[in-house]
Amino acid sequence: MSPKILQPLILFRADATPAMGTGHVMRCLALAEALRDRAIDVAFVAAALTPSIAHRLAAERIDVHPAGDPDDAAATIALGRTLGANALVVDGYHFSAAWRQAVRSLGVPILAFQDLDDGAPLHADLVLNAAARPEETKWRRAAPAATFLTGPRYVLLRRELRRAVAAPKRPVAARSALLVTFGGADPTGLTLPVTAALAGVLGPEATLDVVIGGSVPNGAGLVDRVAALDPRVSVHLDPIEMAPLMGRAGLAVSAAGGTIGELAALGVPALIAIVAENQVAGAAASAAAGWCEAVDARASGAVATLAARAAALWADAPLRQAMADRTAGLIDAGGVDRVADALVSAMQTLW
């Protein structure tokens, strides 16, 4: 009898809460999709998930296991050994150096997302930062022996967005809506005041597509409040697919998180709001490329600034078209495959 060939498995460790947002899990989900396309099984271990994110993972038939205390590595190590994990993907800012060092005892390749330039040891074999410039060396202090996957070639797009990248894009002036999206949880509560301010400064020809993430506290109540602002507002609660909304957006007002890469990939000019320190570097790099403008939403008067700048951009279709044109070739649909290939290659060295 031939020996049973076990299907390789990659374990993901990430959390999602209203305070930290949902981006960590969502970009892990993009990578999980690509790994499954390679006949590699995936599982998640989490200390906290919002109901919306838990539902999303369940809909994808991805097993989720409890992690216990977020800074306790024991559950992750035990689960990795029980499942026979061939690699570990770690995404989050709340894992201490001691936690990261402890999970090395699994003896498998570790891919770590790194958005912060804090120099904390990552204890990883692969380090992913799609916002950093490939030539930058400051990120490498955290894992000097690791392979670094840096720059827009490694932006992770979910399957529905990868399909949309290849689709023809309408001229910006023919796109009817201004898209407002502050992520899956909108931890700083910008959706309502920014939409209200936009409704007050945009002309009657403008329509607003407002996305409210499924992990926003009391999202259903927020839907009613936003919808009541103006007849031009269409509210979308926790949409499964974002590509159709992005495709008809002549401008996006967005938080400066993972959505940046998605907007650039789909050719959407944007005004991006920095709401956290870890977004500063990525926002600056994106603005320097010329396809978006960045506003520090932590500053006083930021809502009024965002509304005024959005109104000026909306009134200048040629400028928005020039911004959209600068996204050409910036981000392709292959980033997630490049990351998956690098992780599989690291796994093969131990097989």
From TrEMBL:
<feature type="binding site">
    <location>
        <position position="262"/>
    </location>
    <ligand>
        <name>substrate</name>
    </ligand>
</feature>
<protein>
    <submittedName>
        <fullName>UDP-2,4-diacetamido-2,4,6-trideoxy-beta-L-altropyranose hydrolase</fullName>
    </submittedName>
</protein>
<dbReference type="InterPro" id="IPR020023">
    <property type="entry name" value="PseG"/>
</dbReference>
<dbReference type="GO" id="GO:0016787">
    <property type="term" value="F:hydrolase activity"/>
</dbReference>
<keyword id="KW-0378">Hydrolase</keyword>
<feature type="active site" description="Proton acceptor">
    <location>
        <position position="24"/>
    </location>
</feature>
<feature type="binding site">
    <location>
        <position position="158"/>
    </location>
    <ligand>
        <name>substrate</name>
    </ligand>
</feature>
